[in-house]
């Protein structure tokens, strides 16, 4: 008996040693981390969890294929920064790389069957309907009116008031409030007034933020069996998630029902447009799922993008002055009237500066798909059915092979040639995704960011408190963990 046990232990030790030696050899060949038997590279991951983006970027850059394998406890997945592989995942073999059931289950309580939480036919139907609405001139004009009201009636007066008092303000929180007002107007036709000068606690906004955080926690840090058990027992974060979702659902469904009653009136928000397309075949729950998905997609992305942009501007006064000069050449100095669509479109240097900022600090730094059927990627890596594959937007924007030796520098000029904005491949700059799932709100997001910057920079100097690079947190977006405290000063 003792002999048998010794034999088993010796065999196990031998297997572990052989696997470790093989893994070390694979690591040297592929540039990825050493994957130890059973535990994978979990210890390496935990040591670097506070700097996950930098850690994984190093492996992407050092890998000959710009794709590496990582994993823990028997589960392996790929992370890539190779544009050809990104194109394969997002476009060429799009059907083979869905969002996957794990992500869908984690977000179903919040997003239901909304466009950003489904694959296949259900996604195609919503995409087709939404694509038509997002290209209409009337929706763009509705957005422009909403932006003008929010900027000139709330954002600028709030900063002016803070400036007069000589106080500091969290710019990221300000942009979050601003953006939530705008996305709710666009999606629901409802103004939650988060950016009211009194900075009110808006119940729906707070519940939505909490629901987003807790839903993200499910697929980032908690095993599905654990959160499903907690949900069944109604304990821990699952109990809190249920409570805030009750608030979100009550509000959303009440707005859907109100819009149904108003059918026939001229309402330009997305919800009214969907009801106008076919009010009988869409249930209240389905309409709720669609609109909540759009709120989630637009709620934080432009807010965090603007926050990182203004932090970069604080360290690049030359870029800031060039923006002021270029905006002044398009819009009369001191003008307080709303910008026109043509004026915003003509702000080429500002668009270049915003893209350069998002290259370095993408609002969604990494995105993950699931392999439907085993495949060979263009970079030579093999992926198996059920494996997760992530494309690393943050790493792609910092690769010398793609952007040159000055890839870590903030240089808007790299996007301009002969005075014109230069488009790059969306697989080299997948900030708005690419292929069939390319962001429908890309143009609207750029309009919103341009409007805010063009209105703020000529009027205010936003002095950042502290010069250290803000610490990031990854929720669904690249948020600044401690916000962005600034002291606004009138120019």
TrEMBL record:
MF terms (GO), sorted A to Z: heme binding; iron ion binding; monooxygenase activity; oxidoreductase activity, acting on paired donors, with incorporation or reduction of molecular oxygen
Keywords attached to this entry: Heme, Iron, Metal-binding, Oxidoreductase, Signal
Pfam families associated with the record: p450
Listed name of the protein: Medium chain fatty acid hydroxylase
Family under the similarity heading: Belongs to the cytochrome P450 family.
Keyword set includes Signal: yes
PANTHER family registered for this protein in UniProt: CYTOCHROME P450 (PTHR24296)
Isomerase found in the keyword field: no
Lineage, uppermost ranks: Eukaryota, Viridiplantae, Streptophyta, Embryophyta, Tracheophyta
Top-rank taxon: Eukaryota
Organism the protein comes from: Selaginella moellendorffii (Spikemoss)
